[in-house]
Amino acid sequence: MSDFDLIPRSQTSADAALAPPLARAAERVAAPAPLPRAAVELTVVIPSYCERDNIAELFRRLDAALDGVAWEAVVVDDDSPDGTAELAKSIGRRDPRLRCIRRVGRRGLSGAVIEGMLSSSAPVVAVIDADLQHDETLLPNMLKEIRAGADIAIASRYAEGGSATEGFSGIRRWGSEMATKLARRLMGVSVTDPMSGFFMLRREIVEAHAGDLSNQGYKLLADLLWSAGRDKRIVELTYRFRARQHGESKLDALVTLDYLGLIFSKLLGGALPVRFLMFAAVGASGVAVHLMMLQFGLGHLGLAFGWAQALAVITAMTWNFVLNNRLTYRDARLTGWGFMTGLIKFYLACSIGSIGNVGVASWIYSFHATAWLAGLTGAVMGAVFNYAVSSALIWKK
Ligand code: GDD
Ligand code: MN
């Protein structure tokens, strides 16, 4: 028995107590069978953060563009302070084709999109930005390609005919071009815009690879192509990337580094999370800063070694903190007072980490007198400790 059968039966037995038999019979004939809503073919996922001014307009445009298609949209909002989720839900009360998932205490474009796609039961899923920069009139053509047998349809800003110049800063464009070349080289997929945030695919692909995808960052398509792209039929369509009208971009030039992190993580077989790799890369840059500062303290400031070393340590820790705040933990970025208390916690964590570092290194050195091995193990221990404390206590979301 399906769920739909249950509804009229219980209604009929409730009616039995109230209505005379004839009326009841007539009603039974006249009562319309509850119609299940037409099965949805396409779910359009709309990740949003502070897009209140764009949601209603986007929904209206989707409605116009997808005329004749059984579609729904799901806004996945990371608890935007501007009330985007509330607005989406109020539209959804009037029109059930718009659903909204409000995520609390989490940030991240990729994670939001994956969650939206996994909430769908339609055979086809798509993602489009909430900010009207993507050309929604491309959706029917993308769907046509999927119906005709494509697995993934990518709306590309770079293929011939497309345009990337309007919505992008120069350095972002350079980063994207580099990402494209790397994707071709390393993933063996030759798509012109692997960083596109506008694409459509069969839901089964997402379901099959959901566990391998990184929740962090802005590179879901590249991630999907890497995990699942090799034997898939990929089609590219081109469009003009529009300029933003309301609100502002949450991305900056540093997303390219995020993408490089993904590539390294994948090259290592996914053994280390992207975030840890970034944390380690920031730490390595901190070593360079430390050495430069030490040199400066000794040579230019004429400090005694102990003082020069102390100055170098504090500079390097501050450098690491600022960079991690900007890059590694961009989705939990600390500002104002939180920045100051975070910095103090970071100094403390690093101090404890370095005590552990020296302890472990000395212990290993005591029975295995290879200095570099003992030193390296100590440094790795220290880094893992700092990372754990940073993730759990400083940039917790
Ligand atoms: N839920 C959620 N959580 N949504 C987010 C988050 C987040 O942390 N950050 C951004 N978004 C939403 C925005 O509200 C917007 O709808 C969409 O994701 C894209 O964000 P923008 O901040 O507008 O990105 P952009 O236009 O600078 O970046 C473009 O290029 C990227 C890659 O190069 C877009 O096309 C992206 O989709 C693309 O990944
Ligand atoms: Mn945008």
Strand percentage: 5-15%
Number of domains: 2
**Mind telling me which CATH architecture of the largest domain this is?**
Alpha-Beta Complex
* Tally of alpha and pi helices: 14
Number of strands: 7
Q: Could you name the CATH homologous superfamily of the largest domain?
A: Spore Coat Polysaccharide Biosynthesis Protein SpsA, Chain A
Describe the model.
- The chain has 397 residues and is of the alpha/beta class.
- The chain has two domains: 226 residues, Spore Coat Polysaccharide Biosynthesis Protein SpsA, Chain A, CATH 3.90.550; 120 residues.
- The protein is 56% helix and 9% strand.
- Strands 3-2-1-4-6-5-7 form a seven-stranded mixed sheet.
- Helix 4 links the parallel strand 2 and strand 3.
- The N terminus is likely disordered.
Give a nutshell description of this structure.
The chain is α/β, with parallel strands linked by helices and 397 residues long. The chain has 14 helices and seven strands. The model is unreliable at 1-19 (pLDDT under 50).
Secondary structure layout:
Layout: H1 3-18, H2 21-30, E1 42-48, H3 52-65, E2 71-77, H4 84-94, E3 98-102, H5 109-118, E4 124-127, H6 139-147, E5 152-156, H7 170-187, E6 199-202, H8 203-209, H9 220-228, E7 234-238, H10 255-267, H11 274-299, H12 305-328, H13 336-367, H14 371-394
Parallel strand pairs: 1-2, 1-4, 2-3, 5-7
Antiparallel strand pairs: 4-6, 5-6
Helix pairs in contact: 3-4, 7-10, 10-11, 11-12, 12-13, 13-14
This protein binds guanosine-5'-diphosphate-alpha-D-mannose and manganese (II) ion.
Manganese (II) ion binds at residues 129, 131, 133, 244, 249.
